[in-house]
Design a protein that fits this description.
The complex is a heterodimer of chains A (314) and B (187). In chain A, helix 1 (8-37) packs across helix 2. Chain A starts with 7 loop residues before the first helix and ends with a helix. Chain A has one domain. Chain A is 69% helix and 0% strand. Chain A has helices at 8-37, 43-50, 52-62, 73-91, 107-127, 132-163, 168-173, 180-183, 185-198, 222-247, 258-276, 285-312. Chain B is an all-alpha fold and 187 residues long. Chain B has helices at 2-23, 27-47, 51-75, 91-111, 125-134, 138-159, 164-168. Classes of the chains: A mainly alpha (314), B mainly alpha (187). Chain A binds chain B through residues 72, 74-75, 78, 104-106, 109-110, 112-113, 116-117, 119-120, 123-124, 127, 130, 135, 139, 142-143, 145-146, 149, 166, 283, 286-291, 294-295, and chain B through 26, 28-29, 32, 35, 51-52, 55-56, 58-59, 62-63, 65-67, 69-70, 73, 80-82, 181-185, 187.
Chain lengths: 314, 187
């Protein structure tokens, strides 16, 4: 059973998430660099490419802010700030090994709630600046939420069903012998898809896509932009990291201690997502919505039914 | 003591943001003021020890308010919620009705003979609340749920401009649907 983490973990959590976000962004910059500009050639060049996100962050910190007329600054700021805040709050139930900052009896629902908060936040960030393309981006994310949220909820419900508990610690404990990914493969794949969609990243970057000149983030400059885009990487790290306690056995594993296994598994999932990004184009939401509602919802319901029958016969 | 402070802070915030819903002239601000109010209510429910209900209120209300933003585009004479508008119509009447309802509810709270606690609080208040609300009426609740869901589906079917005859032809024999925007299933 998981124990309560010490108080300093609360302070460490946002820092750890930010560091993980920078590393993931660096890895993505290297992988994109290979696709766009060819192989790095030397370690130094690869390192320079990996540092690109940090350089960009520094540039944004000193960038001259740009204003739009009749913008709703309050709502815009609120939306921008809520993205990393939701990521950190969701991370509070993320077990590091077998300990998390907080392990409430409804941890799985808490996690989902924080994601929903980020969903509402991006619309605010897109609506606030009073700009057409940014508004389109914000509404695109609402449509995206309608597509991914239902299959996603069924997927995480399936994991909770398998453990017969909404407490994340119990879900991890239930995977002592057999990881959930083995007998809930559909839920796992759907979870990974919706993790990308929730972080509006990779194939699901439609709300911030290039065809809308950057969508919801088009008018954001300086620190605002840094907070939203950085928050997006943190959201990606948290959602990818949550697949470890839900489906990949959390800290369970031979030889190594729990925290090392969590780290390894999270890194593996993130690497898979970053590498897999190159394989898929940006998805238009009217297409993904139909796929989600016609294929993914029935599939996840069937998966939940199978798990429910197994649990009832246990 | 700390619980009292949290209760009052959340309660005042809930009422204040509830008032602001009717003061703002922007639909987006009104929507999110309402969300703030409902999130505070979720916090109060958490304070009662009903963890699941509290978190679910926060989850459902967030999603609900975001979907309300979609409805602003779909159904309102206010494209994308960009134009200034007020949430109040029939101002005087609305104010009187609101004040009367608030007074009635507050009087009910103050005048009701509240029970004092006997025994110990249960280990799982959510479970007990669910049982006492729905336990003997599970059949009614299930029927109600189905009826509500059927209503939602029926409303959407009635509201949609393009039915199956538009999509698959008069004899419904077309192999692929004639849609203005193609979906992702290759149809």
């Amino acid at each position: 059973m998981p124990d309560a983490a010490p108080l300093w973990a609360t302070v460490i959590l946002p820092v750890a998430l930010a560091v993980a976000a920078v590393i993931t962004a660096g890895l993505d910059a290297v992988v994109s660099g290979v696709a766009e500009r060819g192989h790095a050639g030397s370690v130094g060049e690869a390192g320079r490419r990996a540092m690109a996100p940090l350089r960009e962050a520094l540039r944004l910190l000193v960038q001259q802010p740009r204003r739009t007329t009749a913008a709703d600054r309050l709502l815009e700021r609120l939306g921008v700030v809520l993205v990393p805040v939701a990521a950190v709050l969701a991370g509070a139930v993320l077990p590091w090994g077998f300990r998390s900052v907080s392990d409430p009896s409804v941890g799985v629902v808490w996690f989902n709630t924080m994601e929903a908060l980020a969903w509402a936040a991006v619309w605010l960030a897109g609506w606030g600046p009073n700009s057409a393309l940014s508004l389109i981006g914000g509404y695109r994310f609402l449509a995206q939420g309608l597509a991914y949220e239902l299959p996603h909820m069924f997927a995480i419900t399936t994991a909770a069903l398998g453990a017969e508990s909404l407490r994340v610690g119990d879900v991890v404990a239930a995977q002592d012998g057999l990881w959930f990914v083995v007998w809930m493969p559909v839920a796992f794949v759907v979870y990974l898809l919706s993790a990308l969609a929730m972080a509006f990243w990779g194939p699901f970057e439609y709300p911030l896509a290039r065809d809308a000149a950057g969508g919801a983030a088009v008018e954001l400059t300086g620190v605002d932009r840094l907070v939203l885009l950085g928050g997006r990487w943190m959201l990606l790290v948290v959602t990818a990291g949550f697949s470890v306690p839900l489906f990949l056995g959390g800290g369970h594993g031979p030889l190594l201690p729990g925290w090392a296994w969590t780290l390894l598994k999270t890194a593996a999932v993130l690497a898979l997502l970053v590498a897999g990004r190159r394989l898929l184009p940006t998805l238009r939401m009217e297409r993904y919505t139909e796929l989600a509602w016609m294929v993914l919802v029935p599939l996840t319901l069937l998966q939940a039914l199978v798990v429910a029958i197994v649990v009832l016969n246990r | 003591m700390l619980d009292d402070v949290i209760f009052w802070v959340l309660a005042l915030l809930a009422v204040a943001s509830g008032v602001m819903v009717f003061r703002f002239d922007s639909m987006a601000r009104a929507t999110y003021a309402l969300l703030t109010s409902l999130l505070c209510v979720g916090g109060e429910v958490l304070l009662l020890g009903l963890d699941y209900l509290g978190v679910v209120i926060v989850l459902m209300m967030t999603i609900e308010m975001a979907i309300m933003a979609v409805f602003m585009v779909m159904y309102m004479m206010n494209p994308a919620g960009l134009m200034p508008m007020t949430m109040v119509h029939n101002k005087k009447g609305a104010a009187v009705i609101c004040a009367a309802v608030f007074a009635a509810l507050a009087a009910g709270i103050l005048l009701a003979p509240w029970l004092s606690r006997r025994g110990r609080p249960s280990a799982d208040p959510t479970m007990d609340l669910g049982l006492s609300l729905m336990g003997p009426q599970m059949l009614t609740m299930m029927t109600l749920g189905l009826a509500l869901f059927a209503t939602i589906v029926a409303t959407v079917v009635l509201a949609t401009r393009r039915g199956r005859y538009d999509r698959f032809g008069d004899d419904l024999k077309a192999r692929t649907a004639d849609d203005p925007v193609r979906g992702g299933m290759g149809r």
